[in-house]
Amino acid sequence: MSTPFLSVRDLKVHFSTEDGVVKAVDGLSFDLEKGKTLGIVGESGSGKSVTNMAILGLHDRRNTALDGEILLDGKELVTATERELEQLRGNKMSMIFQDALASLSPYHTIGAQIGETYRKHTGASKKEARARAVEMLRRVGIPQPDVRVDEYPHQFSGGMRQRAMIAMALVCDPELLIADEPTTALDVTVQAQIMDLLKDLQQEFGTAIIFITHDLGVIADVADDVLVMYGGRCVERGAKNEVLRAPQHPYTLGLLGSMPSLDGPVDVPLSPIPGSPPSLLNPPSGCRFHPRCAFAEKVEGGRCSAERPALEVVDGRGSACHLTSGQKRELFADYASARTH
Ligand code: SF4
């Protein structure tokens, strides 16, 4: 079996605060191959963004403890120095965020910012970097790139700024791109354009992408595999179609129930998950989802609140829940029929 391009093993990201230790990520493992997209989904506070900040080495080192293993193309990142990580960022791995305006400097032209990243990692001249910036703007679909390259971020629309940020992220042909809710602030049409652009660029460059979102509809559009996070842990993972069509965890089921049906009737009422995400300072015992889970009482002996369910993964597919497969088939059936017929 080939070694995955990115391999995360038993990752723990814990923050020290005045009130105690926040276990933001608590034993997470996954793999990602080149040219594939992994969608990480969960509510805010589930640990998805924290995981990716740790991969990029952008966590606050003064109060954050990392444990476990992050191997990027064989290079261990948990123990890497800040200098080594800086060399990898923008070059081998890159990121795009939700808010392009906050990520771009208002004082420098778009071209200067794209060119600066390129120069830093390649040692190119200013002239070469400008030419590269024009080429990248053309690739991400900015009209008149040789003119727009000298404009400032405030002269670009929201969708164009997002494209410019993608151009900046991809200027050194990174092999891993982390996209954290990159389309959330955009209107639906521009969202669709940006998603198509990312898919085209992935085909062209063979980039591995981690796509972070709270929206399973976005996952349905872009991901090959899905990892569902709750309370700092993975509760379910697998190929996108399997997870979306036949969820094996009550939390995934809840997420699907709180969004419009992917291909079923449009008049199925939405049912948000009751309650709020758990505190990671004092997380619930046993299964962290148990205070919100509609099925906890179906598991005998109070195991849901007493015992952490193991994540059993076979051929990349797994879920962490005490329900038996027979119980899931029976209990989840009503949901499935309501949403697909
Ligand atoms: Fe619900 Fe229990 Fe499964 Fe957790 S382990 S998801 S509480 S049924």
UniProtKB/TrEMBL annotation:
Similarity field: Belongs to the ABC transporter superfamily.
UniProt topology in membrane: Peripheral membrane protein
CDD domains xrefs: ABC_NikE_OppD_transporters (cd03257)
Record-level GO cellular component terms: plasma membrane
Organism this protein belongs to: Streptomyces cyaneogriseus subsp. noncyanogenus
Lineage, opening ranks: Bacteria, Bacillati, Actinomycetota, Actinomycetes, Kitasatosporales
Keyword vocabulary terms for this entry: ATP-binding, Cell membrane, Membrane, Nucleotide-binding, Transport
Pfam families linked: ABC_tran, oligo_HPY
Subcellular location: Cell membrane
Single GO BP term: peptide transport
Leader sequence residues: none
Matches recorded under InterPro entries: AAA+_ATPase, ABC_Ni/Peptide_Import, ABC_transporter-like_ATP-bd, ABC_transporter-like_CS, Oligopep_ABC_C, P-loop_NTPase
Domain ABC transporter span(s) in chain numbering: 8-256
Protein name (record): Peptide ABC transporter ATPase
Entry GO MF terms: ATP binding; ATP hydrolysis activity
Primary subcellular site in the record, as a coarse category: membrane
PROSITE patterns the UniProt entry points to: ABC_TRANSPORTER_1, ABC_TRANSPORTER_2
